[in-house]
Write a structure and sequence with these properties.
It is built from seven helices and nine strands. With 217 residues, it is an alpha+beta fold. It has an eight-stranded antiparallel barrel.
């Protein structure tokens, strides 16, 4: 156990150092970062909470998390990367996920990002949904029921924002996707999408949505 704890700490330290050296912009856009992926694979083999959806484990899973690395980018950054020149001028300021306990075997999830768009200023994108599961192990079904968009600093004007535009998703059009929490400890969480894409989150004490990142750091 002592050896595993020491190995786990060393891997986490190296992971955070490599992600920081990569920079948030590159860490969240599609890239080839095999050394980081290999560290994550090793951490998954030392997972201290193998059943994060179990009622006893939920306190460790719930809360505010910041996305610090995505092995193949995110849904948003993959689309942005396909637009010529935009990926080079757009700035990702923060990507977060907040998990809150819902009814039995349900978690309410808010996924958001602050983006600095060329000429348009700072914008917040958010997707709200739920996690549900049949067995309390580590894989949940994710469904999104609403998306929202807000200019938090339109045209980079300070102390001014536009009203939030919220778009509900009709139940008929809601699709489910599998999400696996493959590693969880008090500081780091790793999630895997259905295609195996790795997402590394770091726990944060503050809430990100609803305010500009500079105001809540």
């Amino acid at each position: 156990m002592v050896r595993n704890d020491a190995t786990q700490l060393a891997l986490k330290t190296e992971l955070l150092q490599r992600v920081e050296a990569l920079g948030l912009q590159q860490a969240l856009f599609p890239s080839n970062a095999e050394p980081i992926n290999e560290i994550v694979y090793q951490l998954e083999n030392l997972n201290p909470i193998p059943n994060p959806l179990h009622p006893d484990s939920l306190p460790s899973l719930l809360g505010n998390w910041e996305l610090i690395y995505a092995s193949r980018g995110t849904v948003v950054t993959r689309q942005l990367a396909s637009i010529p020149d935009l990926g080079e001028t757009l700035k990702i300021k923060r990507v977060w996920q907040t998990l809150v306990a819902g009814d039995t075997q349900k978690i309410c999830a808010s996924n958001g990002a602050f983006l600095d768009l060329p000429l348009l200023g700072e914008w917040r994108l958010q997707a709200d949904g739920v996690w549900t599961w049949d067995t309390p192990d580590r894989t949940a079904n994710v469904t999104f029921n609403a998306f929202s968009l807000q200019a938090t600093k339109p045209f980079n004007l300070e102390n001014w924002s536009l009203p939030e535009l919220k778009i509900p998703v009709w139940e008929f059009f809601r699709n489910q996707a599998l999400w696996t929490t493959s590693y969880l400890d008090p500081e780091i969480r790793v999630g895997r999408g259905a295609t195996g894409n790795l997402f590394v989150f770091r726990r944060r004490d503050r809430v990100f949505n609803g305010a500009s990142p500079e105001l809540i750091d």
